[in-house]
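Figure-free illustration: sequence to structure, shown twice.
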Amino acid sequence: MFGSLKKKLKESVQKLSKKTEEEIVIEESRKEEHKKISETKKEPKKLKPKPKPKKIESKPVEKPVYEVIEKVQEPEEVKEEPKKLSFRQKFTTKEFSENDVDKFFEELEVDMLQANVALEVVEALKEGLKKNLVGKQIKRGKTEEIISDAFEKSLFEILDQGSFDLESKIKGHLKVIFLGFNGSGKTTTIAKVANYLQKKGHKPVFAAGDTFRAASIEQLEHHGDKLGIKVIKHKYGSDSAAVFFDAVKYAESNGCDVILGDTAGRTHANKNLMAELEKIVRVNKPDLKILVIDSLTGNDAIGQAQEYDKLVGIDAVVMTKTDVNQKGGSILSVCYAIKKPILFLGVGQGYDDIKRFDPKEFAKELLK
């Protein structure tokens, strides 16, 4: 999962770490050489001059005169100061500057754009890294650890759009509708979420609100039969809002605590279909509106997310097909674009192939 993006990020962090280590070593060598030169220029310490002997005046005495010789005191021995440790024997540190971060992103920016990370997200990551790294004193031997931690924190700040616990929202009858483009994987995602909730002790019901696409109702019924879940349906071409209304009535009468509604896949540029979606939301007042996005879509995912959010107000996102996505940048881009939490990641075709999204774990995983 996201092998290409992870490889580029890891390589970039290692490259910056190696460069920083080299700069520290060069600075150590430069300082040590400067110290040696300074020491050779110092003049030798001068010895104190010998004091002149005192002049002795002779006095006339009756006794024999003895020659008085004053002992001249020898100069004290000059003790050498103990040698100080060289700069190589100490840990030298480097303080990161904004210029260091800018240079780091000169190469990384292209790689991130190729991995479907939007330009505004790259800029946000750059500013985040400056905030988390500039001014820090980095010790030799600790560069990769410190740079990785700072970059991980910057990624987390992009991905962390608040916690989202689906189960905590189930009080009475939770009405959930799933929205998205054609082929994004809405119907399969609904089945996976239903299976997830069943294992938690909940009783869901399906609303076959996609009355437009051929075989969409049969596809949802197929999942319903396998999972033992009732599907509320109308004829093709009927009003989707009415299907949801009937599904809510069924849930209230049959002890179902979650209504999971399918909708027709539609492009955000199709005004008629988007108007229909707006009607579904206005009439049924769902508790949650979950946008399903194909993670392979690339930067088009930003436009989808922004338009859907603008029209009906998105509560959370599910990213599908992440198991076959080598790039993964669309996850960062969507989080940043609409500031809404990612609820699940689709990681396969089976009912159990859905994973709760943890922004902290995801940020850490990208740098492994």
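We now fold a second protein in the same way, so the two outputs can be compared directly.
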Amino acid sequence: MLLAHAVGHDRAWLNAHSGEELKEVWWIHYGRYLHQRLQGQPTQQIIGVQEFYGRDFRVTPDVLIPRPETEHVIEAALPLGARNILDIGTGSGAIAITLALETGARLVGTDVSFAALRIAAENAQRLGAKVDWVACDLAGGLCGRFDLVVSNPPYVPARDKSTLQREVRDYEPEIALYGGDDGLEIYRRLIPEAERLLAPRGWLVMEIGYALREAVRDMLGAWKEVEIRNDLAGLPRVILAQRR
């Protein structure tokens, strides 16, 4: 991937031209990218792109790199048939943009980071998605009613910071990673916000850390149809709940 990025072609081109000599400028770029990678910088940040749900999203150190596991949020949301959707903590915009393109619904994406919203807006424009972006803490700047609220909130316990991979700990934005000392700080605030904004019988779909399953479920005790779904590794990944 780094070599393909250095020469300005995809991997198929590299395979088709495997006998070709590398130009000096390619070597220079490739060497720089290898140095960055050896320092621990994620490949996605070096090449500036991460695929999510079949589309390429621009990523920078200002946003969390979209993970394949987060596609389970999309898969849980699509069958709900929502027409007004709110994505809280949108980051690169991967969830909001994907749902906008897959459903044609009205989408609003929020983030407390202006830098993240700039990346999200760039991704939306490039991919042809219509999303309204709002800078605010969680959904504090919004009112009205939504059929669906989705979120991939920060849920890594801050006390576990030293156990994270260097690529994550040193290069991804802390504001998008850590959910307080126990990982639950954002859920405690996000769930009441979703309840305030959801229409009756509207849905909340959130990604969860595998160790937080029971704690988050307990926070949704007054909701109905609470369901936890596992990812492909068999770990709890997404929680769904319907507003009474």
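Summary for the second example: Residues 2-39 form one domain.
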